Write the structure tokens for this entry.
Amino acid sequence: MIDKIVLRTFTEKLGKTTLRGVEELGYSIALLVESFYWLLFGFRRRQAVKLPPIFAQMMHIGIQALPIVTILAFAIGMMLAIQGIATLKTFGAESQVVLGIALSVTREFSPLIIGILVAGRSGSALAARIGTMQIAQEIDALRVIGISPVRYLVTPAMVAMLIMLPSLTFFADLVALLGGGVYSSLELGMSLQAYADRTIEVLKVEDITQGLYKSLVFAVIITLVSFVNGFSVTAGAEGVGKATTRSVVLSITYIIIADMVFTFFLTH
Amino acid sequence: MTNQTETQASAAIKVEDLVTHYGSTRILDHVNMQVNTGEIMVIMGGSGSGKSTLLRYMLGLHQATSGSIKLLGHDITKISSQEMDDLRKNMGVSFQGGALFNSMTVGQNVCLPLHEHTTLDENTIQIMGRMKLSVVNLGGFDDLMPAQLSGGMIKRAALARAIVMDPKLLFFDEPSAGLDPVAAAELDDLILRIRKALNTTIVVVTHDLDSTFRIADRITVLDKGKILMIGTVEEVRNSDNERIQSLLNREARHVEINADEYLKELTGQKE
Amino acid sequence: MNNNSDSPVKFEIDDEQGYLVVRFEGEIDLYGTPHAREVILNCIKSKRNTVIDLSAVSYIDSSGVASLVEGYQLAKNDKLEFGLVNISDAVLSVLQLAHLDKVFTIHASLDERIQAS
């Protein structure tokens, strides 16, 4: 009897979770389509997407993140150099470390680290802001004034993310390569100039664009997950907290899964 | 017959046979009501009566299961979202907590509908915003942030934003909630002044009886999603309906217990 | 100055006893205001004492009232006279709502205004 109840609760929970997942996926796709609809055709309905909110979001997502991005990217570059040199030493192939750093930074580490950082910094801020607006009925207020919340809130954030994530990723590429170079030159006695020449020699444009494409996908994931969670807040301040946490955890999870899928197809 | 066409002509809001659900629970059950142009209609009822739900459907925030809601002659259950946006320029809403945008100053909040919907000169917009703030006795407060205002001031600022486009329809959700009696009475006065000056059709959802009797032309009493009665203040006061009398006398509701259902509910076997 | 036939607001300007008298006609609402505003501001810019006659205005919304306020302030800055005459009860109640009946000088007619001053 007890087993039966436990089983029933379990299947019910599983069913509900699946249902919520499917619902959220559908909602996300609708949000994605609608946010681009307003971007492209908003002016036709006299609801053009305005620039100031886009710039405001770009400041928060991108410019204000520069110091932390610099520190993280530099540390990652160094970390890769330390690991690379230590591992390659066993084969006596330390000089190949440049290739290792260059490829793993541009293809993998920069977009991933930027994705995770922005999900934590800006995705959470978005979810909290939208959740707070939702419980204060500010979203309803927008709708009754005749302002589409998607046009007014989602589209600017989406555009800002799509611009700033690749920009930050490219910036992180440069700083991480520098970090790797600084350690390599100290450890292997090669000059920074030689390191830079070698990096340019081994890096192909595709390596960099691959990372940038990934960051575009991450930008969409972070925006949609944050807004879906923000918009679905119902129960007070506690709800906002939960939605914020949930959106960060989900964003990072989806980013890593998407990264894996992406990498699989790009290396095949 | 003539009489009927007359009432139809003056109907600013007409709700016909409205049925709504939340999930699988029926919230509103065949609701019929009409608000005439220039009238103040108060919708009252206990908590869970469906009065706030009725308001949200009138505002076009949800899709009804069946029935129609006509605002200024347009059936909002059928029109396109673009037509709805145009209609919204004639509607003002004052939400329970004010719903001012926290990231903007009071002045920016009030002027937002003008910036979004009109091509008026910036000077004109600024003057209009300050005029509306002065209507609600908040002249000179335009540069403050909402967080710097008291509860009563926030409600009045929200009212200024609601009337900035000179709407034909004005909706209030619990205007007196969270206000002290003096601030609540001031807000009632404002509602009456606005109606007098602009002949606005006003719908107020509230459970505050004092406020209801001060401002209402007619009252709609909702109970468990159904309309108990619609009538003037006198008619409602003199009604011999038991539920209405207990609402007016603020009596606690009798808990009705259906033994079978209750047992199922307690054991979790209820569908 | 002529009527602009495209605009929903019609007006006539007469030079009477030292005043420019602007008689608006029709509805001064969100669509009519930009034009009405231009007319009012042009009168002030020509450095003339101005009187607005609203007897033929069936409806004026707050955007129209805002333009009157703007005109009045500009006139005051230039030490010019600016007044309203012939306003209907409906217009008066709109002005009263924003406490503007205490701001504008309002008279029944131009003659009354001249006598008062």
Observations:
- Chain A has a mean pLDDT of 92.
- Residues 50-266 of chain A form one domain.
- DSSP finds nine helices and no strands in chain A.
